[in-house]
Specification:
Elements: H1 2-21, H2 24-64, H3 72-95, H4 97-121, H5 124-147, H6 157-177, H7 179-188, H8 196-215, H9 220-232, H10 239-279, H11 284-299, H12 302-312, H13 314-334, H14 340-367, H15 374-402, H16 405-416, H17 419-430
């Protein structure tokens, strides 16, 4: 009896898949619905990400009674996000986006709950372990941008990425602004005030996971994979397959290189700018304003960037990314330390250059992968992005300590120029 019921269930699922495979209109509707569902989850995910990051260092500082290890929380959830990116990518590859993304957000929510318990019982070991798990939310928040591209055609992919990134902005802006409110709420229920934002993070991540688990049906990656396998059946053999495979490898390398380079440059200069400003007498309000402009420039231009990447091409926008980051590095290096206007311009350009690089690089990865291996490859690339960001942050302090902020900014600007030969190499391969 059980066997008959399972066969019947599989038949129903197969019929549902077939109805999408044979209908371009249903595929288009599912594409739009997927974008909507992912966008809703990204609002919650952005809030969870930003709320936790805002006070993670302060909790460690309070527990340890020293500033020496205040940077450990950021390092831990960055490391956790790298491992989780691999896990979410592999899970999505095997079971679909719905399983991978919902699991990643749920795990991030459990990590946030662990941070709250650690603050209540004053356990630094539980805090560090929980922050590692909390990093799963960061990785999932980044990987969700791929879900909207599964059913997008080549001319829609960058736009699909940009829509989800803009939605992340709403949550990322709301999260830090609710820090005081959540701190007061936490205090009222007998939880340390600094753990308040993690209550928001836990609720936001778990809600994001629930939204994806309930609403992301049918799974866009499963549909896309089935469609691609049907299209490829007549041309599985021959020289063309080998050529495409080589070009795909080149495209993956270029897309990954674009995102890794932009991440290193952006994180390195961003990390040391607050320190540079404090050395020149700027208060915390001024630092917050500059970082606010920077984060806004990272995400808000996404809708326009996505259209430009789809219209002008991936390589043109990758070159624009390197040029913008170079300009940001030059302005940051030579701007007078007391000039708020020039620092704001430099950090805004830094965010914009990162935005160009992430969206063009993401589109290159999607273009260069087949659905059979896409999610696994995307997870691996996001591991590299997370680790490169951690390396950029760590090296930036060493460069400034050994030399100066000017040297760091110039180094970052010059490093971004490597994007041009990387892109030239990719075009040479196409010829």
């Amino acid at each position: 009896m059980l066997h008959k019921e399972s066969v019947k269930s599989l038949d129903v699922q197969s019929a549902s898949l077939q109805s999408y495979i044979g209908s371009p209109e249903k595929q288009k509707t599912l594409y739009k619905r997927t974008l909507f569902v992912v966008s809703v989850s990204q609002i919650f995910g952005g809030a969870g990400l930003a709320a936790g990051i805002t006070v993670g260092a302060l909790i460690a500082q309070q527990m340890l009674g020293t500033d020496a290890y205040a940077g450990v929380p950021t390092a831990l959830f960055t490391l956790g996000s790298a491992g989780a990116a691999l896990f979410v990518g592999r899970l999505s590859q095997r079971y679909g986006r719905r399983a991978g993304l919902s699991a990643g957000f749920m795990i991030g929510g459990l990590g946030a709950i662990g941070v709250i318990i650690a603050a209540i019982i004053n356990s630094i070991f539980l805090l560090f372990a929980s922050l590692l798990i909390y990093g799963a939310g960061t990785a999932t928040n980044l990987q969700a941008r791929y879900a909207g591209t599964d059913l997008a055609n080549r001319k829609q992919r960058a736009t699909a990425v940009s829509v989800t990134m803009v939605m992340t902005t709403f949550g990322a802006v709301a999260g830090p602004n609710l820090v005081n409110v959540m701190g007061g709420f936490a205090h009222s229920i007998g939880v340390p005030s600094l753990a308040g934002p993690f209550i928001l993070a836990a609720a936001a991540y778990i809600l994001a996971g629930v939204v994806l688990f309930i609403m992301l049906r049918p799974d866009p990656l499963v549909i896309a994979r089935t469609i691609e396998s049907i299209k490829q059946e007549p041309s599985d053999k021959g020289h063309l397959t080998t050529t495409e495979h080589t070009e795909n490898k080149r495209g993956i390398i270029v897309g990954a290189a674009v995102m890794v380079l932009t991440q290193i440059v952006m994180v390195a200069i961003m990390t040391m700018t607050p320190v540079h400003m404090r050395h020149h007498g700027h208060d915390l309000g001024a630092v917050g304003l500059v970082i606010g402009f920077h984060i806004g420039a990272m995400y808000l231009p996404s809708l326009v960037t996505g259209v430009l990447v789809d219209k002008l091409g991936r390589t043109a926008m990758a070159i624009a990314s390197g040029t913008t980051l170079l300009l940001a590095g030059l302005i940051a290096a030579f701007a007078p330390g007391d000039s708020m206007v020039l620092i704001v311009i430099a950090l805004s350009l830094l965010g914009l250059g990162w935005n160009f690089g992430l969206i063009s690089g993401t589109a290159l990865i999607v273009d260069s992968t087949e659905t059979a291996t896409r999610a696994k490859t995307q997870g691996t690339v996001d591991v590299l992005i997370a680790l490169s960001g951690a390396a950029g942050g760590a090296l930036s302090g060493m460069i400034v300590a050994g030399s100066s902020y000017l040297t760091l900014s110039l180094t970052g600007g010059i490093l971004s120029l490597l994007l041009i030969p990387v892109v030239a190499w990719s075009r040479g391969g196409k010829r």
